[in-house]
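Quick start: what a row looks like.
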Amino acid sequence: MKDPYLYDDCPVLRNKLGIRDADSLDKAEVDFSCNALKELVSSPIAGKYDFEHLCAYHEAIFSDVYDWAGEPRTIPIEKQEAVIGHMSIAYAKPNNIETEAIEVLKKMNSMNWNGLSLDDYQTQSSCGSTTWLVCGRCIPLGREYKNYDSFRQSICRG
């Protein structure tokens, strides 16, 4: 199956910047997404921390780089993730994305983030990190480990 997210002539994600080199695109994505995350920390997106809200975060983080930011993907994917030794996680199949994301977000929303002791916070953060990585199965947010902290901070404020 042809990947609609890649350029026809090279294995690089189609992007608004016209970059066709994977390393250059990675660097640009980091720059743009880090700037977006800084904005989100000071001005979180209001919402219910449901699937639509997750999509809104994805769009806010990646819309400067990708036209499809904030939309669930339409094809199965497998990609190497540097944070887990260049292995691929088992991403949700496109028709399961929303259902799986809703399940994970329910778990995240049930966590008591406010007023935690340091020990409790570490336990909740560990659980939240695991949940967030599972959520990444549904909507890969690029560098999930960076995005998680912004999302967690927003939940704490919510």
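That is the whole record. The chain has five helices and no strands. The chain has one domain: 22-157.
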